[in-house]
């Protein structure tokens, strides 16, 4: 039987805000949604693609016609060109993440799978999470939870925590701006909770999109109605801006200022006033 594989862009070690403790975050490529503030544009397409950082280019192979450099990413001497996304099997990926087992054990950490939208590859996701559990490693996923679940019971058994996005509360507006249907997410949250899963709500606070009081209050009400007790408040940042440049993608939030913890203090207060445990950035 052919090994299960998926396209992975990055395995990020020593992450601190993606599920508790020190974690290794695995990024799966591919997402059906298009949030204007996405900080991982390299994971929108399901296919491998090449990024180009012009500031690193030394013009080692200029073309007479002035066209783009034809050097392959693997031959680029400075890393100006980089192939984003390569196929990894479950066993191959597991062998990499178990190297940090001692850090997981000391910090109550583990492995988190993110994206893109990691639920696009539930066959690979479940197999990988199950393999982590067999090694005694705690698992989590970062997800919109807004795609159909193939086998909620299997997924819940393999995943110790679901970090679920609550973005634009109004359904029509959410579908228009991001493509995410909050009703699909909510139905899946109920399925996960009924199967014994643990859900942590995540609220990215994006100026002009999710930061108004009505949106915050609607999200808080829905989180409480669903029976979720904790919310991670995520202030908008510009860490992904350079990725858009290197991929040649347009980025409409370039001039939007980053938010500090002070900027989201009112959001945190609203969450806590409603009886939710609120943590800025997450744990």
TrEMBL record:
Annotated ranges, domain Radical SAM core: 17-277
Pfam families for this protein: Radical_SAM
Keyword check for Transport: no
Keywords: 4Fe-4S, Iron, Iron-sulfur, Metal-binding, Oxidoreductase, S-adenosyl-L-methionine
Cofactor: [4Fe-4S] cluster
Domain of life (superkingdom): Bacteria
Matching SUPFAM superfamilies: Radical SAM enzymes
InterPro entries reported for this sequence: Aldolase_TIM (IPR013785), BssD/PflA/YjjW (IPR040074), Organic_radical-activating (IPR034457), Organic_radical_activase (IPR012839), Radical_activat_CS (IPR001989), rSAM (IPR007197), rSAM_sf (IPR058240)
Similarity section: Belongs to the organic radical-activating enzymes family.
Protein name per the record: Radical SAM protein
């Amino acid at each position: 039987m052919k090994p299960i594989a998926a396209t992975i862009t990055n395995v990020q070690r020593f992450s601190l805000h993606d599920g508790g403790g020190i974690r290794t975050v695995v990024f799966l490529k591919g997402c059906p949604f298009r949030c204007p503030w996405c900080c991982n544009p390299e994971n929108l397409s399901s296919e491998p693609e090449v990024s180009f950082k012009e500031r690193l280019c030394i013009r080692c192979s200029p073309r007479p016609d002035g066209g783009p450099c034809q050097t392959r990413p693997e031959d680029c001497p400075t890393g100006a060109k980089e192939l984003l996304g390569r196929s990894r099997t479950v066993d191959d990926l597991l062998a990499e993440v178990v190297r940090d087992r001692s850090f997981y054990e000391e910090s109550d950490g583990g492995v988190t799978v993110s994206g893109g939208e990691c639920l696009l590859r539930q066959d690979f996701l479940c197999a990988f999470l199950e393999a982590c559990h067999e090694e005694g490693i705690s698992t989590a996923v970062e997800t919109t939870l807004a795609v159909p679940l193939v086998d909620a019971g299997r997924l819940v058994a393999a995943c110790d925590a679901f970090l679920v996005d609550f973005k634009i509360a109004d359904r029509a507006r959410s579908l228009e701006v991001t493509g995410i249907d909050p009703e699909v997410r909510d139905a899946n949250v109920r399925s996960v909770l009924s199967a014994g899963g643990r859900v942590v709500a995540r609220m990215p606070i994006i100026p002009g999109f999710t930061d108004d009081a009505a949106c915050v209050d609607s999200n808080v009400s829905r989180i409480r109605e669903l029976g979720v007790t904790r919310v991670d408040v995520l202030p908008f940042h510009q860490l992904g801006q350079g990725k858009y440049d290197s991929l040649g993608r347009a980025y409409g939030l370039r001039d939007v200022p980053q938010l500090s913890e002070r900027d989201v203090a009112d959001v945190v207060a609203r969450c806590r006033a409603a009886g939710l445990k609120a943590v800025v950035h997450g744990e």
